[in-house]
Write a structure and sequence with these properties.
7-stranded mixed beta sheet; 7 strands
């Protein structure tokens, strides 16, 4: 992982992060409605995560953002549960162990913030991502938690921190 840095997002990263997320979602054929693609936050990720108990990270290689993920309180949920949010990697970043490293960093931060559980939503055909989530300890649950607005994401997973 030479020349690769995982670091918290900076304001100057907003446009690049929005492009990375949209590119990955388009490449994977994700619906544009009811998923992260439609989130207004995509163009202002720095501001959206510049709140207590939230951090968003980018993977930078030679000055280019090639991946990202964040951790924050699960929206519209009354409980000490965070959500692993908007974890996406460009094709050139996949298969290099960056997802595993990003998961470790995000989950360590969730524990530092004293969350008790971590939730995520994904698509059924995102099998590689689900493999990583299961390897990390996430298990499938039968119904969504909170209300993220991502009603087109029918796979829900939870991890005890």
């Amino acid at each position: 992982m030479k020349n690769v840095v995982i670091r918290p997002i900076l304001k100057k990263d907003n446009a690049s992060v929005g492009k990375v997320i949209r590119r990955v979602l388009i490449d994977l054929g994700v619906p544009k409605v009811g998923t992260a693609y439609a989130d207004k936050a995509l163009d202002s990720m720095y501001e959206n995560y510049n709140v207590p108990r939230a951090t968003y990270y980018v993977v930078e290689e030679r000055g280019e953002i090639i991946g990202c993920a964040g951790i924050a309180q699960l929206e519209n949920y009354d409980g000490n549960v965070c959500e692993l949010q908007k974890m996406y990697f460009l094709e050139k970043a996949r298969g290099r162990g960056l997802g595993t490293e990003m998961m470790k960093i995000c989950l360590d931060k969730a524990r530092e913030y004293d969350f008790k559980k971590c939730y995520l939503e994904t698509m059924p055909y995102m099998k590689d991502a689900q493999k990583l989530y299961k390897k990390t300890g996430f298990t499938y649950i039968d119904s969504r938690l909170g209300n993220t607005g991502h009603y087109s994401c029918p796979v829900w997973m939870l991890l005890e921190l």
